[in-house]
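Predicting holo structure, pyridoxal-5'-phosphate bound.
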Amino acid sequence: MEPLFGREQVKRSVAAVLEALREPGAADPPPFETLVQAVCGRLHVAKMNTLLPVVNATGVLLHTNLGRAPLAVDALNAMAAIGRSYSNLEYDLTAGGRGSRYARTTDLLCTLTGAQDALVVNNCAAAVLLMIDTFAKGREVVVARSQLVEIGGGFRLPDVLRRGGAHLVEVGATNKTYLDDFERALSPQSSLLMRSHASNFRIAGFTRDVAPRELVELGRRVGLPVVEDLGSGALVDLAVYGLPRERLVQEAIAEGIDLVAFSGDKVLGGPQAGIIVGSRTLVARMRNNPLIRALRVDKFTIAALAETLRLYATQRHEEIPFFAMLAAGEPALRERARRYCSAIPGSSMVETIAYAGGGTLPEQGLPSIGVALDFVSPGALLERLRTNTPRIIARVHEGRVLLDLRTIAPWEDDFVLAAFASA
Ligand SMILES: *Cc1c(COP(=O)(O)O)cnc(C)c1O
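Done. Tokens:
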């Protein structure tokens, strides 16, 4: 077996354990075995703090803490192939000279969304920052008050605008915004009209929003670009899978939005990336912004994103794990649950609710099937599951530990069941 730790790592752990013993007021030295256990414990914790694969049994499909979207096999193979050898990352194979990394996914993105041009950066937050920095520095951005969202993980639209050097002009009331509100807020300092996806909240009751087409019409009339932070960025209708209908990226483009930004690793099901699609002249200006050098994506992201997009372009998007999980039928989930129940003593099949997650569609549940485990202390079982191999992240529901089968990939079943067999 390959060693897990180098000599120096072990030495540091031993030193740290001995150090604690030398502290003034420390008790008498414990037996040697106890010291060895303490050193092993430290090394175990060190290993747990490295990046490791886990089994997601939470039922939250796009779990931000668990790395959001798992990738399709084609995307993973492309990353391995591109990593193993040299690539045409910045080399033009037809012209035989220097090429642009930014061109590698443009055709696919334009074909799928109907946009004239596209640009990929590190994540959606970077995409929004680049938009603001390019078009709104020192000028005003007009946004409806009802769309000033904080996503979590430090992305808060008003703060991003401020960091980008733009002045936020909030219009409308919390629940109602009219086109007139936008119109009256315009000044010679206005640079962009902006829309943002509410992502993780809903305003219910008496509400009124400005339709994208109305805003586009105003933008055209006064000569200002209309940009939209779509957040999740769906390319196919999620209602087919029992989720609420999300406005598609291609719809935003068809409605005339000049620039649309969205994430690569939310409902798209690809690698972490921020994708901007829209008008040729505006994308060109963003491409020429020196900031792009700091926000650019690496070859692995480009490889994985291109293959993920190709799956959409060839009607194979159900090979993307996010869609495979959505599409899993109840009979198949029940079948797998029966296997779990016969392998794990004291477990039973339960109907449960899974969630899309990923900072979008927060409330909408998907019917799912879980396996509930009877254990005296659910907290202790949760801990054992997440620190053993494979590391399983589960949740407690009604006093019992629950494994939701919708987010456990069928190919993981053998590992999970083997772990229970050995425990
Ligand atoms: C998730 C989200 C973001 C941030 O996307 P990242 O790719 O995580 O940077 C920005 N805006 C909206 C509306 C979002 O939903």
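The chain has 16 helices and 18 strands.
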